[in-house]
Design a protein that fits this description.
The protein is of the alpha+beta class and about 230 residues long. The protein is about 20% helix and about 35% strand. An eight-stranded mixed β-sheet has the order 3-2-4-5-6-1-7-8. Helix 2 packs parallel to helix 3.
Length: about 230
Amino acid sequence: MKLDCMTRRAAWLLATLTVLLSGCTTYVTTQVTAFSDWSGNDATRTYAFTRAASQQNNLELSTYERIVANELAAHAFREVESSQAHYLVGLAYGIRSDMVTVSEPVYYNPWPSPYWGWGRPFDPWGPWGPFPAGYVNQSYPVFTHLLGVRITERATGKEVYNVTARNSGGESSLVRAMPYLARSALADFPLGNGVVHTVKIPLDKAGGAPNEVAAAGAAVPAPASDAKVVQ
């Protein structure tokens, strides 16, 4: 009975340590793949968003368009009426949930009080532990977030840029992941044809997204920090 109590105590401490360490993550890492036939210049970078008929009154899509518009503006794109736009920009997005199972060690300290925590300052294990008691399988949800940005010439319908950004992690909300996806997708624009690279974006001080998600039609704040491209 005493050993079971110690095992539970050690497992609780290990779980607490895992949570604390997970808070130390400072970057969101996104894989970006681009296909490009880009030959535009700043004078022709006017655009309008295009939607399928079923998406005309989609508030979620409107929110994501504002986030992407903010990133496009950083590359001299200017949003205009559809009839005046040189380019049309279409978005595709989604989220998928999977479960991953990992084998984790379980520790216990066989020394009961008063030896628990004795020895070194702030060391709950003392000089005798912890000792591995075995391994257990733990399952965790992992969410994959996806954003695709497709740019076509309005007059001809020719596709000139198609980029996809994908990242995975414990974030279950696509709307919170979208600012990272949008910035990663358009980092170092325009990429060459068939380029695949990784973009690392630092979390803000609150551990949130680099731009706050704005209501549809509202302005989105300027990027708070630069994306780091890792080839």
